Structure formats: C-alpha cells, structure tokens
## 1
Amino acid sequence: MKYFYTFFACYESGLRVVFCMRGKSSMGQTISEKIFSKSVGRAVKAGDFVEAAIDVAMIHDITGPLAVKTLYEITDRVWDPTKVIMLFDHQVPADSIDAAVNHLELRKFAKRQGILNYDVQEGVCHQVMVEKGHVLPGELVIGADSHTCTYGALGAFATGVGSTDMGVALASGKLWFKVPETLTFDINGRLGRRVYAKDLILTIVGDIGINGATYQACEFRGDTVKHMDIANRMTVCNMAIEMGGKTGIIAPDETTATFLEERAIGGDFALRSDDDATKVVRRYAATEMVPMVAKPHQVDNVVPVTDVEGQHVDQVFIGSCTNGRYEDLKAAAELLEGETVARGVRMIIIPASRTEYQKALKTGLMDIFTDSGALVEAPCCGPCMGGSFGLLGPGEVGLSTSNRNFVGRQGSPGASVYLCSPATAAASAIGGEITDPRSH
Amino acid sequence: MVGPKGGITGTAWKFGDNIDTDAIIPGKYLVLNSSQDLAKHAFENVRPNFAHQVIKGDIVVAGENFGCGSSREHAPLALRDKVSIVIARSFARIFFRNAINIGLPVVECDTTEIEDGDILHVDLEKGSIYDETNKKEYAITPFPPFIKNIIEAGGLVEYVKSGTQLEKRERRETETDLSW
Ligand code: SF4
C-alpha cells in the first residue's frame, strides 16, 4: 500500500498553521475515476455525483432535434461550437418527409451555430467520430446515442445520453454524472479460427446478462484485448451498453497511439487503472471461446452457433457500428469469395462509413459481395434500428451483425432477429440457414 | 404532472422484466418529436391496446431493468402525458436519467406482488406505495438528494435554468424561422 504525505499550509489572522497528514493513500483510481477527476477539477471516486465538463458532444438525425429543442429552452448558443459534431446516419438518405424535415432543421441549426456537420456523407456516427479523430484518450465524451460507449476503444470515457441531457450539455458544456464503479473484464489467450471480437463480447454479455453491468464502467483488459486492433476494440466496447454498462473502456496503448497518429493531436496515453482501484474482475479465456449467436429477443440470450445451426434465415445484414468496418467486411468476404447467397435469402451489406466503403472498394471486396448476390448500400445505420429500409416482415427471421435483437428492432414485431459475427453471417447467407463459420 | 410531494393514485399496467426502449416506442416513430404524437404508439408492439386504453394518471409497473436499450428520450416522452409514474424493481441507466430529466417520476420498488389493474396510491413524500387491491404497502427506494433536487425543480431544464451552474449567457434574439 502506498503512503503519502499531504501538507496544507493555511494562513489565518496572521497565524501560520501547518497541518501534516500522514496516512494511507486514498485508494487508487480507475481510468474512469481519473477521467472524471480531470473533468471536474478535483479527485472524485465511484458513487460521487459530479458536474463534469464535456470535451466533445455528438448528435445525430434522430436524437438531435429534441436536444436542440432543449438547448433553445435554456439559451440560444451552444457552449462551444468547436466541440459539437453533428451527422445524419439513422434515416439516410431521408426515407420519409418527417426525416427530411428533421435533416433540414438540423442543417439550419449547424449552420447558425457554426457546428461541424458531416450531414449524410460520412456514415454511422460512432465510426465517424473515431475515424475522424474527434475522440482522444482521457476525454469525457457524450453522444445522444446509447452506443457512444464505442469510443472507449480509444481510452475515452464516452457515454450515451438522452436528448434533455444533451440539450443541457450543449447549453452549458457540463452535465451531471454519478461516477461509476468499474467492472473489469480480464481476457487472455488467442481467439481460435473464425472466432472474433463479436463472439467474445457476445460470450461476455451472455454471461453477465442484459442488466449485469448497470451503471458501471466496463473496462476490458488482458492480452487478448492488447492484441486487438481498434476496429475489434470498438466492437467490444460498443456492446457494453447491452449489459447496462455506462461505458466500455480500454486503456490506451501503442495501438491507440498509432491509430490516432494521423488523425488527431493530444490525448493522455498513459492512462491506467491503479491496481488497488480494481475491485471486481471477471476472467475469461479467449482460447475457449467459440462463434456465438444471440437468439431472439434479448441480447443476453446467447448460445454457441452449433446450438442454432440449421435455423432458416430470410435476411442477413452485415453492418452497423458494431460490425461494419473494413475488418468485418474482410472476414465476411473470405467466406463469400466465389460463393453465392442462398436462394430466398436477402443479404444486405452496409459499410459503417465512407472510408470503410472505399477500403472495401479498393481491395476488391465489393466485387466479391456483388458477385455473390449481396446488396451493398451506402454507409448508414440501415436496418439496424428498424426505422429505415431493409425491414423484416411478420414471421421472418433476420441474422444481423448489429447489437440488438429486441422485438420489432428490425421491422415487424412478428419477426425474429439473431445476432452474430460477420463470418457467421456470411457463412449463413451462403447456406440459407445459421451455419458455423468454422465449417468453411 | 404530479409533483414529488403530491400523492398519486392510478391503475397499474403491469409489465415484465427487461422492457426495452424498442418495446416502449418502436424505432420507426423516432421521427416524431412531440409527446402527444409519440403517446399514440406507446408499447405498440408489445401491448397494442395500451395507447388506446391508458387513462391519464395510470401507472406503469414493471420488473427489472425497465427501459433498457437505446438512449431515445422518445421513450419516457411517449409515456409522460398519460402515465403519472413508472414503478419498477430497477431501471436501465439512460431511461432513468431521461425520465428524471423530463419530469416523469420513476421510482424503484419491489413490484412482484402488484398485478395488472391494481389500484395504487403512491406517496413520494412518505416513500411508500399502497396497493388498494391487495391491501399491501410497499416501501420505495428513496432518491439521492442530488436527483431529488432535479425532480423538485420539475426536470433538468428547470433545474439548470434556476441554478447557478450555468454561466449567464447573453441571450440573442431567437431567429424567427425556428420551428422547434
Ligand atoms: S448502427 Fe445501429 S446501433 Fe449503431 S448507431 Fe446506428 S442504429 Fe444505433
């Protein structure tokens, strides 16, 4: 246990009093506590209610309008236009007049406030925020979207908030938080052939449960995580919210630094959780993991793919902020190359951003996809949230690389959605039924 | 809206565990931004009669983890006009925040014995719920003082407006073409 000395010098009525305190250091801090301490300007610990300064705020086409409405109830200027990022991804290009009106109003807002608006051009919010360098290690980031926790892949404390919270933050640059406890996931070993970060996080969500990490920061560490690239770390952090987590977070390292090198300047790359701050640790062996599938209608309803093999599928969707990156598309293409999508199956592939789309285009993945009979769409959320195109009809079964399978999430409340990795999705599209990707 | 000090009386609509935000308001209605429009589609996929039959003042009662899933504030908004309070064994984090922030009272309480259609009296001041139908009384988990202050102010916007934490900003004329 570390000890430290604190000296307070205090001058009062000309009398100098010196206090000398010697004692146990207060417990060390987790990454999350360190980020909040920096943001609040004093040492804070889990359980404290704080008002913290926001480094970056993200709004999109669905939750943006309500946030702006709240802002205007308080004031008429955002606190700092350089710290607000806007983009449209959920209903893109506008798929209804209501959506078009929301886009119009938000465009006006961005212009008036001088906010960077990527509009419909760049892709899914969380992918764009990370790849454009808007998030740095050690920052406190909020987004008006629950999967904002994805940015923890870069060592930021990033969390999703509602529109009123966002409106208040846009007005003041600050927001109240309860500093969360940290739940640490220590994952070691190599993932086997055709077993991916998605299978890892599905295993964890299945184990912890949809409610198991409510209000906690989910910190992922261990050599499996250490060896993951940023794309895979994003997949892992993305699904922290599916356990109720306030954020997913991974300590920044050389991989993070290399990723951010060309994208942004700054960030605290030395952030670590102190050993004595880590209380609850769950350990997992990556070597034992297998391809997993979340069955309808709950994300923690997770089973090995072998349990649901042979389940007929009507639609297969590869994309979303969970698994729409180049690495995901590549994993799918390895299986789809020279193969065709089964008759009667619709396969929809949507790269998560323009950048990822272009990478896939330049490396020939798009040829593989279109040759196989898949539909490739421009970057956006697509069928993931069931508000736009690619919806499932009553009684249909969808297989998706996204993160949620609640009733009605991808269309009809009478449809069923299974969640899996891009490789499992590709193998299943070829087979017309849920298929173990290791059989290819 | 019912203030935290007033008593609330209403009929229970009982739901199970893990009622997610897609169940409360399906994604296709997220283009709507007003509570009145959203209320027409509340629980549409899981309890299609809810929106038609709910009476102002009714109470939503649920099990664990109510409101899990997305950050859509459309979910508590879809309930706020008609539902006087949501009582659940536990809430998902973002829904809980959102509800408090927009002034929809939410309380945690063991709801196992409360049934659909029970008449409930909620006394937030005393911290109890009396179920007139089964004649049982339940204790409510009290709010931390910080959250109590937000509720008493009538929501986060009012809290911030009345508080000192917002530096006073010079308010410019709001442009007239603003439709929200
Ligand atoms: S891809 Fe899906 S989960 Fe991700 S931001 Fe879009 S709708 Fe939400």
## 2
Amino acid sequence: MLGERTIRTLLQDGLRAAPAGETEILLLSTHAALTRFANNTIHQNVATSNVEVAVRTVVGKRVGASVTNRLTPEGLQEAVSRAAAIARVAPEVPDFPGLPEPEPVVAVASFDEAVASASPEWRARQVEEVLRLAESRGALAAGALSTDVAEVAVANSKGVFCYHVGTRIQFRTVVLKEDASGYAERVGWRISAFDPVGVARTAVERAASAQNPRDLPAGTYPVVLEPYAVQDIVSWLGYAGAGALAVQEGRSWMNGRIGTQALSEQVTIWDDGCDPAGIPLPFDFEGVPKQRVVLVEHGVPRGPVYDTVTASKEGKRSTGHALPRAWPEYASLGPIPTNLFMAAGDASTEEMIGRVQRGLWITRFWYTRLVHPRDCVVTGMTRDGTFWIEGGEVAYPVRNLRFTQGYVQALASVERVGAEAWLLGDRFGADRVPRLLLGAFTFTGVTEF
Amino acid sequence: MDELVARALNVAQLRGASYADVRVVETTEQGITVRNGAVAGMSWTEDAGFGVRVLADGAWGFASSHRLELAEVERVVDLAVRIARASARTLREPVDLGSPVIQRGSYRTPVQTDPFAIPIETKLDVLLRADGEMRHVAGVTATEAEMVFIRQRKTFASTEGSLVTQEIVESGCGIEATAVRDGEVQRRSYPNSVGRHQQTRGYEFIVEQDLVGNARRIAEEAVALLSADPCPDEVTTVILGGSQVALQIHESCGHAIELDRVFGYEAAFAGTSFLTPEKLGRFRYGSEVVNITADATLPGGLGTFGWDDEGIPAQRVEIVREGIFVGYLTDRQTARRLLRLLGPSRFVTGESNGTARASGWNRIPIIRMTNINLLPGTWKLEDLIADTDRGIFMDTNRSWSIDDRRLNFQFGCEIAWEIRGGKLTRLLRNPIYTGITPEFWRSCDAVCNADHWVLWGTPNCGKGEPMQVAHTGHGAAPARFRNVRVFGKR
C-alpha cells in the first residue's frame, strides 16, 4: 500500500506540474491475489501489484486524457504533459461543465487488515477444505478465492482531494456431480464471518439435489429466483438504463416510466456507495461524493444516477456516479450505479416455493445479454440447479432452459420478496439482493443437460 | 531489460523452481471517441510491467508487478515460488509440460503506415466527419465514432532457453447510429458492432474502412428500422452476413475447442465444452462444406503473432475438416494431458499448437482463440440469395448468448431483410435466431467465396479469473443455414 500521505504528495506534485487550465489526477493502486481451482486441485494461483494514474486536462472546453502506470516523477510528468498536449488539439466540448468543485466526502471504513495480509498459504488452506468437502461427496469443485486491496484517490486543480482504501474478499464455486452442478458465491470486505467452506457446502448440496434432471418444455412459468439470479436482473437494470446518459438519449427502460407504477410495489432498488453493507467507495472517479440514489421506490422508477456532464445538461448536481473517463472503454459509457441494493421482504424460501402450483426454482442465470434496451429484454440460460415446483413443493430437477424476458416486466410480476439478502460481485462493484417470487417468466428454449 | 529478465530466471532457479518464464510487456494505446458531435474521450495509455510464472513442487505460481526494478523482480519471484508451493498443497499430479521448448527470434506486425505516426488531428477529422454524416440523417438520436490504436512490445524468456521479442500493432475503428421513436430503439453499426472492427495492421486499415463513406447509409438504415416490420416467428432458411458468421464461429466453435474448457479448468467461469475428447476425429460437427482452421499466421488477424506466451511458434491447425471435428486449441500442459488420455494419433501429438496467450503482464497465459476461420466456399453472395426462394438475410450482431457447454445459442442481429423468390425484399427489425451448435452447422449448405471473405476482429473476448480480455480473429464469408428458428423481440 502507498498510503494516503504518499498519494497526496504524488498527486499534488502532479498538479503543480500541470499547465494552466484545469487538471484532474486519479490514482488506482491495487494488490490482488486469486487462488483458482478446478477438478479438486488448485490449477492457477496468481498475485499482482499495479498503480495506475489517469490525468485529465481541460484547456477552455478542450479535454485531453492520459494514463500511465509508471510511477516515477518523470512518468507522472509525461502523463500530465501528454494529457495537456491532447487537450490543446482537441475540439471544444461545448457543454463540458468543467471539473467538479470540492465537496466534503464522508469517510467509510471498508478496510480489513486480515484481508489485506491474507497469504497464499491461507487461501490455499481455505480452498483445500473446500476441495476435501467436494471430494467427500463424490463431486468436483471449481472456483476461485480472491483477496484484494485497492486505494483510490482523486485530486484536481480546484482543490478536490479524496482518498479511500478498501479490501475485498470473494469466493465462488461451481460444484459438478455427475450430470448436475451447484453454485455458490459471496463477496465482502471483512474476513470475519467469511466462510468459503460454508458457502461451498450449499453448492455441494445443490449439485447433489439436481441429479437426473428431466425435460421441461419452454413456456411461461412462475419462478422462485435465488439471489444469484435476482442480481442479474438488478445489475442489468442498473447497467443498461439507470444512468442519465441512457435516459437522455431515450434508450433506457426508465424512459416513459419515471413516476409511474411500472414495477411491483414490493420492488425498491437504490444505489449507495457509502453503505458498509456493500463494497463502499464514498466518491466517484471525478472526486464527487456518492449520493444514495433511489432508482425504484415501491415499484415507481424515480430517475437515474448522474455524473457532472449529464447533470449539467439538466441543471442538476452530479450524484457521484462517474466512471473513470480517461480509459477509452469508459469514455462514452456515461454514469453507472455500482453499489446496488434491493430491499428485502419477509418471505422465507419455503413460503415462496409453497405459493407456486406449477413453476420453477432457479439457482442462477448465465451468459445473459441485452436483446432490447427499452424493456431491458435479456436472454440467457439457467444453470447450476433448476427445479420443477408442483403443488407448492420442489418436485424434481429439470434440464437447463433458455429465457428471453423483459426484466422490467419480470419485476412487475414480483409476488413475494425474500427476507434474506446476499452481497454478490458485479461487473463494477457489488450488489445486495434477496430472493424473489415472480408470477411469470418466459423460457424460449431447452437444452439436453 | 535483459538484466531484469535474466535476474528473474536466475532467482527462480535459485529458489528451487523446476521451470520459470518471465514476460515483460509494454503497451501503448491511443483511443479517440466522438459522441453526438463532440469528443467524448481522447486518451493515451501506457502500461508496462512483468510477470513471472514458476513451477515449484510440481505446481504453478505466478506473480507480477508494474515496477520494472531489480529489487522488485526478486520480491515478485519469491512470491511466485511461495504461491506455487501453496498450490502444491492440493496437487494431484505434477504439471507436465513435455519436452523443453527453445525458441529465439523476433517478430513485428507488418504495417504499411504506422498508426502512431498519423497526427491526432487527422484521425479526429475522419471521426467528426463520419459522425456529422450520421447526424445529418433526420431521426437519428445518438451517434458514436471511435478509433483505437495499440502497440504492444513483449519479451518472453524461459529457463529452458527461449528468448523471443515481439511487437504487435493493432488498428481499430467503428461508427454507430441510434434512432429512437415511440418506444422503439434501433442501432446500426459499421464495419462491425460492439464498438469496432480491428486488425493487426497499420493506419491503412482505417483508410480502407471508409467510415465517412458508410456513415449516412447506416444512419438511414437505423431510422428505417424504426418503421420496419418485426421479424416473423418461424423456422426458415437464414443467410448470415460475414461479421455474424464470425461471431457464430467465435461462440459456437472457437470457445468449444479450447482444451482447458474441455478438461474443466474453466468450469466455474467460462464453462466447459460439449466437444469432449472421445469426439476428436469422429464427431460430425458440421456439413461437408464446413471447414474451420485456427491460423495464427494469417496476415492482419487479431490472433496473429510470432510466438504465443509460452514461446510456441504461431501455427495453422485444422479444427473441422469437411464437417468432422479434428482439432483442439492447446497449450503445453493440456496437449500433454490429451496425449496421456487418448494416446498418439494423427490428431494427438502431445505438442502445443501455440494458443496460450495472456492479456497483459499481470495475467497468466491461458488457451485463447487465434484466428478461427470458416474457409471460403464457392458461392457469390448474389447467387446465394438468388438461389434462396424463401428465407431471411441477417447481418451485424446485436446480442449473443450461449450456454456453458456451447450448445444452445441465441443471437440477435441489427438488421434483416426478407428473401422472397431469390431477392431481398422488405426490411425486418429485431431479428433473432436460435439453435443447437452441431445441428446448426450441419444445416449449413453454402458458404460464400473468397471475394466475400473478411478477417474480422473481435477485441473483447472475456475468459479466465482474474478476467482476461483477448483479441481474436475470425475469417468468414456469408453462409446459408437451413431450418433455423427465427423470431423477433418478445
């Protein structure tokens, strides 16, 4: 770890070296380790250290950016000079609002020394226990256990400086047993109460109960979704339409639905980068404090998240959801919510299954892709344990199904919400979501397994 | 650099590693994105570091760092060896790499025009003019145009005696127009979707794409799609455009032939494969017109290089010959395992065919597609359409999904036309087709000829944990498939 003091000095030196105009420097420092296993053995085991510095320079309304991981004074100086050189030849961005002004950022603790210092031997011991468990049940386990430390800091020439250090521990496994499989995953930032073996046990049990799956025709059925599947829905709604750019361009599922009862009254979704129940980062990559933004309140979409560019177009303040725009892959994505929460309800799994006469209990969705943005129509597969429910009881496992379903319509049909919510890894951050009982979900294809 | 590499290998051996390799990788990337008439991003990215992979106590360890310093080399090698010994706690059998591989030399992507020598103003001018052409079309609500240029220099050295250096250059570009009306959203992209088309070539590749000359057409198509009829729900004949055939190859063949997936190494993330070892040399994957190769020697492909990241020379390998599955993508470890499993044959040598690639200095090499190609057939596209009485022509991918064994797929395209009486007729929106991989490829009865064949680039292939994004190539021409289930958005 570099530490706040060292990083502050580095960034201030960088800003001092910057030419006239506005300059922003973002620093990402990571120490990441991952122990990967398959076929009941560790087969890949890696660690990496990196520090990336991204510079954005604004000359008038011209913006240039550069990124380097060369952390010498010369490396930083070159990055600053290059960003300025790009800005000088860039055309003006007429509606560029300028870099953000300083705002107070409330620090959130999300650092656990035990995660930061987790050794290769510790990770191997945890995985070894998981593998022993799988082997004792005649199954093969595959998956990964990772422990990471990340420092994020943003400074700009208007006086912004914010720093956060956080840890992350993540475990996931697919357990294979004959013609079936099970899945389990958890993410967190504390090592205490993180129990890879306990998590893996649920996957082993799911694989055992999913043996000898039967065929089921495609069709529309009520479904009980485990949190893994619910997270896919919440994540797509966040990524593909809960950012202001998508709404401003008219391609969001929120368009035409803001303020209307578009989803079930039981659905409330918000983004909160400051809640230690998630993986917090209390400011965005422009150094703006993250606001708690309610995206859907009792089934009513309330509006998207903003960065400074999209907020200025509507005369609003950024909600603190900017991505690191200096990287080409994020340059035109717009703001995205990365710390999603879905309100839990009071239903037990048994109660939800008990309410289904003829339907499905689904562990997980896989390889989901957006088919059409306005209803957030998504296609994907079920995986790692799909079961037929009949007369309020789990009857037997079924082969995997392909679905093509509007996720907006899916959440409009929520009948019950589970009492328990799990924190699960997402493409940018992590989401905390419960189980759901949906009245209707459309499956469009079948498989042989 | 030489001292750093030598120190890494020496320290690894001193710490007891039975094998070690080190890769030093320096990448420069220039990205320019124009959105809705304004610059959304202009950036220059430099990334450098080294990774050390060791075998100790029969197991793998890997560590890496961005600090290219001798003291850091020692720390990283120590860590790699320690990680390997931790891995060995669960070892079932020691890693077998086969015979030593000793390669020496250098490779550079041949380019006519160094893309980094072209002024940024010239690139911006092309993007802004293309963007402007699209925005002139009434009904277009959002536009985007982008260029990406990458130069990667890497050195690979191993304790077996290999030392190779490479410089790979990539150029990519793309434009897209979005039209929105009455709750309908339509997008058209050129030359390919998901941002861009890309090759290992110089700026001449960008010039050839003629973004400006194609901008108005795709914008007009996006607007026309808003009022097009929906794709019908039926089983019919489908002709796929070349870029969609490339995507079909990538998802249903390229991933399925990765031998690490077959052996379960990717079971928890990327998935496994239906192409299990007993099928090698005997399974009918496709019809007799289906011939597929993995060819890392093709000029211009995103999977073209001199050596892979285990120091194995680039190769051309048969994957499907006249419809029969005959080859996997292998690395050193999986090639040996396949040999132990099946014994030697004309399909199994125990030697890697050179597909282990890492996305950067901080990732381990894993099996990745090189250029996976459907070889050209004999048809002219206009003749193929004329030969089709009833069907649908679909082009440019919009969505893609396939199950974890690579069997059940569903792909959406940006645009389609109905075929009636051998002619393209009405425009269709939101076309989707679905199928089961071998059934689909067995239904292929025609592939267009070399005049229509393009080496498409896929710069966004995800696999592995931690995630690695690979750049792969896919040579493809339009092809016809019978009895395909199609439908529109539900």
## 3
Amino acid sequence: MSKSSIFAIVAFSFMSFFLYQGLYNDPKKVESPLIGKEFPKFKLNDLFLNTSHDNDSFQDRRTIINVWASWCLECEREHSHLIALSNNKNFDLVGINYKDNADDAKGWLNMRGNPYRIIIADFSGDLSLDLGVYGVPETYIIDENQVILYKHIGPINNKIIQQEMMPLLGMNE
Amino acid sequence: MKKIFIVVAFLFSSNSFSADIDKQYKSLIEELRCMVCQNQNLSESEAPLAVDMKQKIKEMLESGKNEEEIKTFLSERYSSYILYEPPVNNQNIILWFGPLVFIVILSYFLFRRYIR
C-alpha cells in the first residue's frame, strides 16, 4: 500500500469519527456555563401568597428547582414525576413560574396538583434569563450553599431522575 | 442666542448618541444566536425569549454597557454557543485551525509529488 493511500484512509477515518459522533449529539442540549456557580440573586413575588422571595427563601439543603409554565405542553408530561419527587422529604422542591400569568398558573396547578413548596413568579423572565433558561421545562439542582450542580433541559423522566438527579440529591437509589 | 445654541447642541448630541446605540444594537443582534430557534440570529427571530433578549440588550446599551460586556453577560448565562463567532478555546481550537493544518499538510504532499 502506498503512503498516500494510508494517508487517505487515516484522514477518512478521522473525519468519519467526528461526523459519526455528531449523529448522536443533540444540538438542543447546550451545557450550562452556570454549573458550579452560585444561584443568581433575585427578588420576586410568590405565585400564591402576597409575599416576596429572594435567595433566603431556599432552605439550606439540596433543592430541585423546576422552571415551568401553564402554556408549556412538555411541562404536563413531567408533572407526575414532580408530584412523586415532592413526596420525598430528603430534599426541597421549588418552582419558578416562567412568563405566565397568575390565573393561568394557579388554574393549571389546581387541576394537576402542586408539587412545589414555594413558587417564584418570574413573569418578566428576568430571573430565568439570569439562569440561562431557553427551553421550558428546565430542572436545576442546587446544593446547601446555593451552588448550581445540575441542569436538565426538557421534561424529566424516570431514567433521568434515577441516574442523574438522585445521586446529586444524596439519594443512593 | 446662546440658549438656542445649547439646545441645538443638546439635540444633536442626544441624537447621535441614540443613533450610535442603534447601530451597536443592530450589529449585536446580528451576531447573537437565538437559543430557541438555533439557526436564526436574534434579529431574525421573534421567539419570546429572543424578544426578551433584544429588550435586555437595548436596556444594557442604554445604560452604557459596551458590546463586549453584553456578549460576556449573555455567554456567562447561555454559554459561548450564543455567539456566532465564538472565542478560540480548547474545545473548538481544532475547528479554528484544523482546516489550516489540513491545507499545510496537503500542500506538503502535493509539493513533494510535484518536484518528483
């Protein structure tokens, strides 16, 4: 075999390797640069109560933060999982209601059940912009010091909960 | 007369100020990706998130932030994927310089064949 045909084969395999990888990459999944950073500072109203929330509203423990909206169809798909997660008292579950209106959001939860301990009403989308939200639903996990450990874009499912989220929540299931 | 001059000067300056911002704004939204509809830039997109981002960019420009600061602000939140011209780093260095290396290697082989 001549040198140049070896070169061609090597170059071809090299290219194929890269292109093959690309087949299994989801361009919708962009790794968040916020992982390892602190949860952004905010001050926003509660969805139900006439109170406001800021970073002190988080309890000093592992917390799932779920960004959702009543207009979001995919949020419906993951809702039963959130209800199930809310029964586990080893971690906290907080909702961020994204670019919604209060009546729609409340009605949506009345029909489906409310899994969240508190819901932060981000109607302007400012907090979500700071969080880098671009495809609701999105789910975050923060630790005791409000450092972001994890981000998932799109609805969560059993596999994601068991394999990715539970270990970060200190559950060895 | 002096008063008129001041008023005119003020009008002129505020006008060129906002025209400058407008120019910066237009060039910025051409260079930033809409994260929802990923093959469009912000200026082409009317997705709710893109509209919010454009509003945010406008506000930041008006409060005196420059292009670099705004790009940093957005890529800190949405990763450098949001920039159509991402900075060179370890992850994408092969994309920036790969083709150049390829051409150099190829021309070396072609050159050798040519002189033979």
